[in-house]
Amino acid sequence: MVNALLGKRVLVTGAANGIGRATAEAFAAEGARVIGLDIQPATGSIPIIRCDLTREDDIIAGVARAVAELGGLDVLVNNAGILKEAPLAEVTAALIDQHYAVNVRGAILVTREALSHLGDGSRIVNIASEPTSGAPMPRSIVPPRRQCWASRVPGRANSRRASLSMPWRQGLRTRRSSPSTA
Predict the structure, then answer these.
(1) DSSP track, 135-154
(2) Residue 2: Cβ-neighbour burial (10 angstroms; 0-12, 13-18, 19+)
(3) Hey, where are the domains in the chain?
(4) 3-41, pLDDT tens digit by residue?
(5) Long-range pairs, 63-66, Cβ under 8 A, ≥24
(6) pTM
(7) How far is CA 145 from CA 53, 132, 142, 148, 163, in A?
């Protein structure tokens, strides 16, 4: 059996820990060449380029460096996201802006920068959390009658549907994945 990932060049955002790290390690275990973008330093075997997804200049430089080190891109995984819960009465505009900057705008800008380096047969995978996927949230996550605001990856909920309407090249595929419902 031929390994379809052998030698593929993969960029994973939020790859320093959690689902991003596990995703990056899984690609590497299948023979892919993987680089991560993250604001946190590397803690495993995957090389991490420091990148603050709230800063456009960091994104431009980070994607350019990853492309240079990998020699191009075959797969982009938009995984990075933050979750900062707060009682609804304590939610600030700054908290909302930070979530949007990392979870939505960051993914859009990383994709914009990576797009010209993704060839035919390339893939973009957008990771979304269960609360944004339309699936009901288990009560263990949000207890009944508790007013809170939490957003892991708002705006990526319909990323697959939205991405299909964008002017992608022929041969480039996009996917949304919600690991908590998989």
Answers:
(1) PPPPTTTS-TT--EE--SST
(2) exposed
(3) 9-181
(4) 889 999 999 999 999 999 999 999 999 999 999 999 998
(5) 63/11, 63/37, 63/110, 63/113, 63/114, 63/117, 64/113, 66/11, 66/35, 66/37
(6) 0.78
(7) 34, 20, 9, 9, 35
Listed residue (11, 4, 6) closest to 125, CA to CA: 11
Residues 6+ apart with CB under 8 A from 33: 7, 8, 9, 10, 70
What is the Cα 109 distance to its own chain's centre? Answer: 11
Judge contact between 39 and 6, C-beta under 8 A.
Answer: no
The distance from CA 174 to its chain's CA centroid, rounded to whole angstroms, is: 12
Answer whether 163's CB lies under 8 Å from 124's CB. yes
Distance of CA 82 to the CA centre of its chain: 11
DSSP class of residue 122? E
Give CA–CA dist 112/53, Å, rounded: 13
Two tokens, residue 95: 């908290």
The superfamily in CATH containing domain 9-181 is: NAD(P)-binding Rossmann-like Domain (3.40.50.720)
Stretch 61-73: mean pLDDT: 98
CA gyration radius, the chain? 17
